[in-house]
Amino acid sequence: MVSVMRKPEKVERLYLDFDGYFASVEQFANPKLRGKPVGVVPFDGTTSTSVIACSREAKMQGVKSVMHMRDAKRVCPDIIFVPQKPDLYRKMHLMLLNEISTVIPIDTVKSIDELTCRLEPAMRDHPETIGYLLKKRLEGAVGKVITSSIGIAANRQLAKMACKAGKKHDGKSYGDGLAIWKPEDMPTPLLKLDLDDIPGVGSRMKFRLLKANIVNMELLLKCEPKHMRKLWRNVTGERLWYALHGYDIQAGESERGMFGHGRVLPPGSRSLSGAYEIARLLLVKAARRLRRENYYCSALWVSLSLEHGYWGRYFRLAVVNDDQAVLEGLSIVWRQAEKELHRHAKIFQVSVTLGNLSDADQRQLDMLLNDDRKRQKWEAANTAIDTLNKKYAGTVVTLGAWKPPEGGHTGGKISYTRIPSSEDFWV
């Protein structure tokens, strides 16, 4: 259901996105990298993985995130590859949030490098002033090394699109933009954009729109709300219609559906045995997060990216949140992998996910298993382990061996959608 609140007459939302965040933080931390094309990669000493993020200088030469290192080197021969430092990005993120909050209250932190703010009534008549003050504040803290692009509009969707549009100027520079889309100026700024400039419109959705003879933004804006719902095949399309037409709407909060971690494997761990050791560590990290946020799970997914394909399995767990239970599930799944995969299979990435969540105070036991006594024993053991690890701010006690892989950051990787806690970096 779409809940249309109102149509603002002034700009009310600000969207801020740091430009090439991971790479620019690397440049801030290491002055020798400033002004040079930089690509952040999962770990040091590899040439067979993809670029996680790249600096403004690299982007101007055609490098893109998720581009293979080989291709990045081809389009930008002087690119400098540096291994990721997730804990550094997290600390810088917290510092930058503190700087921003001295200028304007932060409404929602969307990711490690994106956030939204609500403009207070006194700010709405002169939005360029708040944009200028934010940029001056950040420049005073980190100079011109870490820049941001800002979009200001009537609602969050339009502010995000304005922010993205403001990142690119005349093809000679990237980022540090400020775009203000006032209600009285709409929809002119939208008509300059392509369909895939809309957040969430990927290649499949764009193909669906083209099949419906909607080939540009003007035709999309002429659609009716119900037709947009039909095109998207859910209420998201209708919500988007109202957002593009300047309405302020609020979608309901999404419920957490899973806890998981993934890791690109270093060259020395790209075997079944090497991948298993890293999968164990990832799964323990996921179970710790599960307990910290007071959930139980009843499903485990394990997936492996192979040299020539993919392997994955689902395993049903009892309703659990302790390390012993999830590791036992992993052992069973791994025995299947050993039976079905060639013993010399080359594994490039492993991912583990705990799903089918339930709140800790709503746990329902499986009467057929009758394992309550066993679960209580292991949960008590995990409580003691978690208490000790928290006391010493590190992994001092674990079930079984704890051997962090080459390159570190097992479970502490920063995605663009989740900001890890300090506990994720315990080794």
TrEMBL record:
<dbReference type="GO" id="GO:0003684">
    <property type="term" value="F:damaged DNA binding"/>
</dbReference>
<dbReference type="Pfam" id="PF11799">
    <property type="entry name" value="IMS_C"/>
</dbReference>
<dbReference type="Pfam" id="PF00817">
    <property type="entry name" value="IMS"/>
</dbReference>
<dbReference type="GO" id="GO:0005829">
    <property type="term" value="C:cytosol"/>
</dbReference>
<dbReference type="GO" id="GO:0009432">
    <property type="term" value="P:SOS response"/>
</dbReference>
<keyword id="KW-0548">Nucleotidyltransferase</keyword>
<dbReference type="GO" id="GO:0003887">
    <property type="term" value="F:DNA-directed DNA polymerase activity"/>
</dbReference>
<dbReference type="InterPro" id="IPR043502">
    <property type="entry name" value="DNA/RNA_pol_sf"/>
</dbReference>
<keyword id="KW-0460">Magnesium</keyword>
<keyword id="KW-0227">DNA damage</keyword>
<comment type="function">
    <text>Poorly processive, error-prone DNA polymerase involved in untargeted mutagenesis. Copies undamaged DNA at stalled replication forks, which arise in vivo from mismatched or misaligned primer ends. These misaligned primers can be extended by PolIV. Exhibits no 3'-5' exonuclease (proofreading) activity. May be involved in translesional synthesis, in conjunction with the beta clamp from PolIII.</text>
</comment>
<dbReference type="InterPro" id="IPR043128">
    <property type="entry name" value="Rev_trsase/Diguanyl_cyclase"/>
</dbReference>
<feature type="domain" description="UmuC">
    <location>
        <begin position="13"/>
        <end position="202"/>
    </location>
</feature>
<keyword id="KW-0479">Metal-binding</keyword>
<dbReference type="GO" id="GO:0006281">
    <property type="term" value="P:DNA repair"/>
</dbReference>
<dbReference type="InterPro" id="IPR050116">
    <property type="entry name" value="DNA_polymerase-Y"/>
</dbReference>
<dbReference type="GO" id="GO:0046872">
    <property type="term" value="F:metal ion binding"/>
</dbReference>
<keyword id="KW-0234">DNA repair</keyword>
<keyword id="KW-0808">Transferase</keyword>
<dbReference type="InterPro" id="IPR017961">
    <property type="entry name" value="DNA_pol_Y-fam_little_finger"/>
</dbReference>
<dbReference type="InterPro" id="IPR001126">
    <property type="entry name" value="UmuC"/>
</dbReference>
<comment type="subunit">
    <text>Monomer.</text>
</comment>
<protein>
    <recommendedName>
        <fullName>DNA-directed DNA polymerase</fullName>
        <ecNumber>2.7.7.7</ecNumber>
    </recommendedName>
</protein>
<dbReference type="GO" id="GO:0042276">
    <property type="term" value="P:error-prone translesion synthesis"/>
</dbReference>
<comment type="similarity">
    <text>Belongs to the DNA polymerase type-Y family.</text>
</comment>
